[in-house]
Amino acid sequence: MRHFAFLFCFAFTSACYAAPVKVQSYSGDTSLPHKLLISAIERAGLDYVHPYETNKDISNARILNDVKNNQLDVMWSMTSTQLEQDYQAVYIPLFRGLLGMRVAIVKAQNRELFSSVNSLQDLKRFTAGPG
Predict the structure, then answer these.
(1) With contact defined as beta carbons under 8 Å apart, do 10 and 90 qualify?
(2) Which among 84, 88, 23 is positioned nearest to 58, based on CA atoms?
(3) Which residues of the chain have pLDDT under 70?
């Protein structure tokens, strides 16, 4: 599944009437989507507010409802057919596929297994798999 964000779906509409952009997160959020969104809003010279001033999880259903009712201007989520029918999506691959990347784990007795790997060509001689 592709991972996308709805980062800027309503931010530029908000700029038309100079109201602060209402973002999905709380002010102490350190997540990548939040940091990228705040950076983009600041670079656009816009102000923003955090309607949810709590670090507690807000349900996805509430966030979607708040966007529909103009309580939020911007949200991010993985894409789906239904979301794209109901909302204006702006495709930005926030994690650039990192959620699908795998980390090689080897047993302690095999820790030298990759010591001679210095290039992609060196790595290609191995076959990866679970277990």
Answers:
(1) no
(2) 23
(3) 1-18, 55, 96-104, 130-131
In this predicted structure, what is the pLDDT of residue 100? 61
Phi, psi at 120, each rounded to 5°: -60, -40
Q: Tell which residue, 12, 2, 3, 1, has the closest CA to residue 88.
A: 12
Residue recorded with tokens 């952009």: 21
pLDDT number for residue 122:
92
3-state DSSP assignment of residue 23: strand
Residue 129: predicted pLDDT: 72
Kindly write down the DSSP assignment for every residue of 31-83, as one continuous string.
Answer: -HHHHHHHHHHHHTT--EE-S--SSSPPPHHHHHHHHHTTS-SB------HHH
